[in-house]
Write a structure and sequence with these properties.
By secondary structure, this protein is an alpha/beta fold. The chain is built from eight helices and seven strands. The protein has one domain: 3-Layer(aba) Sandwich (Rossmann fold). Helix 2 links the parallel strand 2 and strand 3. It is globular and about 45 Å long.
C-alpha cells in the first residue's frame, strides 16, 4: 500500500474545516493529493486553513444548517474544483453537559440543525453530482455518544444517534450508485468543544477523570480522526460501507 497520494486526483469537501478534527482532515487529504474545499461558518478560520494548505485548497464560508448557504458554497466549490468525489460532514455543535430538562428549546434546535440537518442539506447538494461522477464517498462524523450515551448530553447524544443511523441507511440506499457512506465515531477530543462536553472547567484533574474511562489512556487527537477519515475516503476501504467506526481508544467496549 503506497503511503502517499491515496487521494490523487480527488476533490473533497470538508465541513467545519476551520479547526479541530476538520482542519486535520483537510490538511491530511491535501497531503494525500486531494483538492480540498475548506468549508466553515468562520470565514477567517477557513481562509487560514486553506492558506496553510496552499493552491490545492480554497475557503468557503457557510452555515451548514442553512440550505441557501450550503447550496451556494457547494456551487462555488464545484465551479472551482469540479464535482466532489468525497464529502466529510464534520461540522458539529453541542450543548453544555447538563440535565436534559435544563437545555432550552433554542439550544436543542441549534444542535439538531448543525449536527443532523446539515447532513440532509449536504446530501441534497452533493449526491446528484456524485451520481453524475459514477460514485463517491461520504464520511460523517458521528460520535461514541451515539453508540454508548452517558447522562448530561442527552440531546447531543441523540443527534449523533441520528447521524449514525442516517449513515447506515444512506449506505444501503446509495450503494447501487457506488456511493459509500460511513461514520466515524470519535471519543471526546482536545477540541474547542471539550469544556462543553465535560460540563466542568477544563482542568488537569477534570481531564484525568474523563481519560480514566478510555482504556488507551488519552483523549482523541485530530490526527487520529484524520487518519481514520483518510482510510474511509480512500480506495483502501472500497468494500466498506455503512460502518460506524469508533476512534475511541476502547471507550465503547
Amino acid at each position: 500500500m503506497g503511503a502517499q497520494h491515496r487521494l490523487a486526483g480527488k476533490f473533497a469537501i470538508v465541513t467545519g474545516a476551520g479547526g479541530g478534527f476538520g482542519e486535520a482532515i483537510a490538511k491530511l487529504f491535501a497531503a494525500e493529493g486531494a483538492r480540498v474545499a475548506v468549508l466553515d461558518i468562520r470565514k477567517d478560520a477557513a481562509e487560514r486553513v486553506a492558506g496553510e494548505i496552499g493552491e490545492s485548497a480554497a475557503a468557503f464560508a457557510a452555515d451548514v444548517g442553512v440550505k441557501a448557504e450550503v447550496d451556494a458554497a457547494v456551487e462555488a466549490a464545484v465551479a472551482q474544483f469540479g464535482k466532489p468525489d468525497i464529502v466529510v460532514n464534520n461540522a458539529g455543535w453541542t450543548h453544555k453537559n447538563q440535565p436534559a430538562l435544563d437545555v432550552d428549546e433554542e439550544t436543542f434546535d441549534r444542535v439538531f440543525r448543525i449536527n443532523v440537518k446539515s447532513i440532509y442539506l449536504m446530501t441534497h447538494a452533493t449526491v446528484p453530482l456524485m451520481r453524475q461522477n459514477g460514485g463517491g464517498v461520504i464520511v460523517n462524523i458521528g460520535s461514541v455518544a451515539g453508540i454508548r450515551p452517558r447522562p448530561g448530553l442527552s440531546w447531543y447524544n441523540s443527534t449523533k444517534g441520528a447521524v449514525n443511523i442516517m449513515s447506515q441507511s444512506l449506505a444501503v440506499e446509495l450503494a447501487p450508485d457506488n456511493i459509500r457512506v460511513n461514520a466515524l465515531c470519535p471519543v471526546m477530543g482536545e477540541t474547542g468543544l471539550l469544556e462543553s462536553f465535560m460540563g466542568v472547567p477544563d482542568t488537569p484533574e477534570n481531564r484525568a477523570r474523563f481519560v480514566a474511562t478510555i482504556p488507551l489512556g488519552r483523549m482523541s487527537r485530530p490526527d487520529d480522526i484524520a487518519r481514520a477519515a483518510l482510510y474511509l475516503a480512500s480506495p483502501d476501504s472500497e468494500f466498506v460501507t455503512g460502518v460506524l467506526l469508533p476512534v475511541d481508544g476502547g471507550r465503547t467496549i
